[in-house]
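Postdoc handover notes: sequence design on the structure in folder B. Input tokens:
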């Protein structure tokens, strides 16, 4: 995208101010990106990035002193404070710069480690920049932290005690499913060193790497997916090794190792479960037999008949057992219960009737309020435009419910220049209508601006997200500018289907 923007003259490679603004907008579009950088052939450099704690940085290397100055910036890209200053910084000699120039195309840089502010392993996507005559102008670089891969692997359950690790074919560890950092930090020398799989603190990872090295050679000559077995750490292990490659230069190995005991434990667990189910089935069948025998006793049968009659509302159809044993006591209790149940049902019917009336009254009030809200929303939306600067405008708004999350507006922001916005918040009803009011409020502050519609949508999105992210709701939108004098239509859609019929 940066390369296309440069070729279309949307950005100026020598203008740090415009590049800073452009990179800043991209940083919010691509949430996985750590830093967006450009290094120029004269050694100068510009970067915009984010830290894990939410702080944003701006890095600049000027042409005069070649000092790398790193600033903390706010959400408007204003410099807050100087974080560091590194003299004699030359982007041309950086490994990522050299890799792009050598590849002469989009490629991945070598993996590298930060001491700060992103402790961990990262990689950069790099692409050389040339002018029309083929002269090198610089390199675009996009930094990505690989910590997300580590976090993902640690959420996986590989059997019960299985492990996953990813490595380069030179033996350096990239990440794993265990809580082990793939690098050493030497705070005295201010240096970070990559960890070899042969130096891992996890015994099974270390022994698996030794086995694979002996079997497939020094550089782990493995291609595709290979499954094998080995006795490691005193136990039989199942190992699957898969090559991960892409057309931009990645060549990694993904290794999964699971002990045989994990499989046997599942088999033992299934056997125990089967025995338990058999015992439960036996107990249930025995209980059913006893229950059926008990149920056939005559007095119980009579009580059953009486209970069915009561269930039908025949409250007087009870039986009397002239017995002084437990069954006689049970019958007395049953009769008392039936009388109490009758009284309770009569009381309940009266309460239900009262509550129903109250609920109907409340619903009438809600309907009246929604009717008023419907009128307010319709008055909020533009209507009856007629002719604007020689353009016939007609609108029709028909919400799915009384109120909804739709918003549109047509406005002549300057002579012969008309701006149209259509927006739609997710969902229907009162919540969406309130979000629509928020969208309208933010848009009215921007609507008279002569900025490009795509920039307006970006600003509107950032404002809305910054203020109302907690609502967990989103909206789509389209801004269409009609330039009557120059006979142009300029438009941009944010998640919104096409709105122009030609």
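Designed sequence:
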């Amino acid at each position: 995208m940066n390369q296309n923007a440069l070729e279309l003259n949307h950005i100026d490679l020598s203008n740090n101010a415009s590049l800073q603004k452009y990179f800043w907008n991209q940083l919010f579009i691509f949430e996985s990106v750590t830093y967006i950088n450009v290094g120029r052939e004269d050694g100068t450099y510009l970067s915009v990035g984010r830290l894990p704690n939410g702080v944003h940085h701006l890095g600049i290397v000027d042409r005069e002193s070649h000092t790398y100055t790193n600033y903390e910036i706010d959400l408007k890209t204003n410099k807050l404070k100087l974080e560091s200053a590194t003299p004699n910084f030359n982007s041309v000699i950086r490994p990522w710069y050299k890799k792009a120039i050598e590849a002469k195309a989009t490629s991945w840089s070598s993996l590298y480690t930060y001491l700060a502010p992103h402790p961990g392993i990262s990689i950069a996507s790099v692409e050389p920049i040339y002018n029309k005559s083929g002269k090198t102008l610089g390199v675009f670089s996009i930094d990505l932290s690989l910590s997300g891969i580590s976090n993902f692997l640690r959420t996986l359950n590989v059997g019960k005690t299985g492990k996953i690790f990813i490595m380069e074919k030179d033996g350096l560890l990239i990440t794993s499913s265990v809580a082990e950092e793939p690098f050493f930090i030497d705070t005295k020398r201010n240096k970070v060193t990559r960890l070899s799989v042969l130096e891992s603190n996890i015994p099974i990872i270390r022994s698996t790497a030794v086995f694979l090295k002996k079997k497939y050679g020094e550089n782990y000559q493995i291609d595709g997916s290979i499954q094998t077995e080995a006795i490691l750490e005193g136990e039989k292990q199942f190992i699957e090794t898969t090559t991960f490659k892409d057309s931009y230069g990645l060549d990694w190995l993904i290794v999964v190792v699971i002990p045989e005991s994990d499989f046997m434990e599942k088999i033992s667990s299934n056997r125990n479960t089967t025995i338990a189910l058999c015992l439960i089935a036996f107990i249930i069948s025995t209980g059913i037999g006893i229950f059926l025998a008990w149920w056939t006793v005559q007095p119980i049968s009579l009580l059953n008949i009486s209970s069915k009659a009561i269930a039908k509302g025949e409250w007087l159809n009870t039986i009397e057992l002239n017995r002084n044993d437990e069954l006689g006591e049970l019958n007395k209790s049953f009769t008392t219960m039936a009388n109490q149940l009758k009284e309770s049902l009569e009381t309940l019917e009266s309460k239900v009737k009262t509550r129903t009336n109250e609920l109907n009254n409340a619903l009438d009030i809600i309907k009246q309020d929604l009717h008023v809200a419907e009128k307010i929303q319709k008055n909020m939306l533009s209507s009856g435009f007629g002719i604007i600067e020689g353009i016939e405008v007609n609108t029709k708004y028909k919400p799915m419910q009384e109120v909804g999350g739709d918003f549109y507006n047509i406005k002549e922001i300057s002579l012969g220049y008309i701006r149209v916005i259509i927006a739609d918040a997710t969902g229907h009803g009162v919540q969406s209508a309130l979000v629509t009011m928020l969208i309208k409020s933010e848009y009215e502050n921007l609507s008279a601006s002569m900025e490009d519609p795509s920039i307006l949508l970006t600003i509107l999105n950032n404002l809305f997200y910054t203020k109302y992210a907690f609502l967990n709701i989103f909206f789509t939108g389209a801004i269409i500018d009609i330039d009557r004098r120059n006979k142009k239509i300029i438009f941009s859609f944010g998640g919104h289907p096409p709105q122009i019929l030609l």
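Context for whoever picks this up: The longest helix spans residues 326-380. Don't rerun without checking with the PI first.
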